[in-house]
Amino acid sequence: MRSVRARAALGATLVVAVALVAAGLAVLLVLRSNLTDRAGLEAEVAAREVAGQLALDVPYARLDLGDEETHPVQVTDERGRVVAVSDDLEAITGTGTARVTPGPTSSTGPGTHDDDDDDDDDVKDADKHDDTDDDKRDDDPGRGEVSSDEPEFSNGTATVDGDRADYRFAAVEATTSAGVTLTVHAGAPLAAEQEAVGSVRGAMLAGLPALLLVVAAVTWLVTRRALRPVEGIRRELAAITASQDLGRRVPEPGSRDEIARLARTTNETLSALETSVDRQRRFVADASHELRSPIASLRTQLEVGSAHPELLDLPGAVADTVRLQALAADLLLLARLDAGERPGRAAVDLGALVREEVSQRAGDRIPVEVSVAEGGAVEVSGSRGQLARVIGNLLDNAERHAERSVAVTVRAKGRDVCLEVADDGTGVPPPERERIFERFVRLDDARTRDGGGAGLGLALARDIASRHGGTLTVDTSPRGGAAFTLRLPGRS
Prior knowledge:
Elements: H1 4-55, E1 73-76, E2 82-85, E3 89-92, H2 120-132, H3 134-139, E4 145-146, E5 152-160, E6 163-175, E7 181-189, H4 191-243, H5 258-307, H6 314-338, E8 346-349, H7 350-359, E9 368-372, E10 379-382, H8 384-401, E11 406-413, E12 416-423, H9 445-450, H10 457-467, E13 471-476, E14 482-489
Parallel strand pairs: 9-11
Antiparallel strand pairs: 1-2, 1-7, 3-5, 4-6, 5-6, 6-7, 8-10, 11-12, 12-14, 13-14
């Protein structure tokens, strides 16, 4: 299933189905429990009515057992013998004994306790005794008692007049005046509970498929509408890929949801990609142009030297080779930086590195003054080679533009380390102070080309500074020329 809409619809349908089934089962259980409790209450009331008669010593034969179809009753003694049952009760289960026929002692009253071996004469005497004492018993109620304990409940069946049904039975104990304990089992039908639960279950089973169908359809439509902008973005990206036109942009929906943010992010990515590709194209074009001059000059000198050895300008050929080598090194470093190369985390003493770089420039046309602050930490973390390249490029730039002096100052400023290279040249006009850090940019083509500059030194220096977590800016120096300031985080 590859469609997001189909997966969303299926997932929502499954979740709703599980929730509905769980809720339905809970409703059925609660409904069944409530109806069963109500039936148990009815059975308890019926059982306590019969138990009350037994406590008043009403004879078994004269017990009012109520409606036998609605509340079948079974009375047993302490030995589990049946002493009284409802009329037309043919079978019973769930009450402890399945007998529905009263034993021989059932004709005696609850106030007597005969053994199983009593003969018929004793039974008749008991009947006469019961009949003569009825009025006395009625006038002297409450001689026995009904148990106040919570009745015991059970489920079972009863067959009354040929009809078998399920019942909820309640067992209530009663003690007669003679101390005989009797147990009354009275039942209440569970037909209403079963019918109600069956009706609710049937309604749920009938409505569940329709409801799930509605949920699936609504989810499908909502997901389709929500994903419509995504399809537009996909088509536009496919068209951009096919045409390779990075100037095109995907449509942005007017909503403020995740899809709108996706479209904006996609367009920002396309803009960054377009800028990167344009920059790469310009870089390739400029690099080709810069390489063409020293290569052509070197080739011309070698061809002339091959034809006329006496005319070979060996120093010029060496200079062109050095220039070509430096340009290739700059291009290689730029490529590595563009590829995301990260500098190391070695400790670099910036003051010592400046002195080392200046010491290698003894033959420069303008001497360099070095000033390193005493007592301050001037160590930074990074690549010693790359930071040396930054210092060398700044010194080369200052040498080309200075008239009489170049000064380098290294000092700690707060938690940072600042390196400043100042000259007394013409300086950099404010409108050009950011442009000079672009690749292959020259403010004075003739002078920089004569000096060997290709317009990459300052661009390299800023890239390296940025990758070391620092900045490189230019301002006007107190000497009147340009002051380049390299600011790097100090090593903690």
